[in-house]
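Encode chain A's predicted structure.
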Amino acid sequence: MPTPGAASVATTAEAEGRTWFVTGASRGLGRAFAEAALAAGDRVAAAARSGAALDELAAAHPGRVLPLTLDVTDRDAVFAAVGQAVEAFGRLDIVVNNAGTLSMGMVEEFSEEEARAQMETNFFGALWVSQAVMPYLREQGSGHIVQISSIGGLAGFALSGMYAASKFALEGMSEALAMEAAAFGVRVSIVQPGGYWTDLYTAMRQTTPVEAYAPLRAELERQWAEGSVDSEPRLAADALLKLVGSDEPPLRLLLGSMVYDLAFDIARGRMATWSAWEETSRAAEKAVPAPGAAPQQPPAS
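Encoded structure for chain A:
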């Protein structure tokens, strides 16, 4: 639910600077995004499950931070929070869907409750925010929605199948939204970060292991321990400022050398497979009249 504070920031609605709406703003990447926006002289409606975690941020930037206690899986609460942000600041310019969770486990291991919970925050939460802000952005004829995806949006990997599913869903929805929003001068970008030092992994949930996967799980954990590359969240925030400051922001932005190289490897691998199976693919299509349609008569000579 929205928290008090609209009155104290309403007087800044006409001040210069952009207005941000950032979810998951209490820590990690979300906190870095909010701090970078404030350092740039902008205003931030900072949303998080724990409003108390935002008190320090609000105290350090009086009049420029609207702290919002918000569970993005609650659609009604999302619409109310967005409305409060617009009431307080007068407009929205940049919306960052950053709130997310990570559930790790083999696909077979997920219960229905665990699978749905992963989708609720990572996909539906971003969907509700996108739906809530679009009427305001359409009306003002501008704005930029930034969807924070992941390396998991590039491909599915063992142990992160449900997480990848939530990010694939987010990216598919966002591609469509980008086409729909463009007609109103609203931009949409999908950001795919690599590893950053946040609490995503320490706060992650894990499924109850199925013993048959123990050897695979052990091998994957060994690989991650040897090859993990994590960076400071401020570097992602610096990249985000460049993205939203661009006159022609891309639909997709990769963050980090590891994810950049992996994206190209995945794309090349898919293209090689498609090429190898081209004959089968093309043979599966042949235009025919609609079932039940009258046969076409040959042209008169």
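The CA atoms of residues 125 and 296 lie 51 Å apart.
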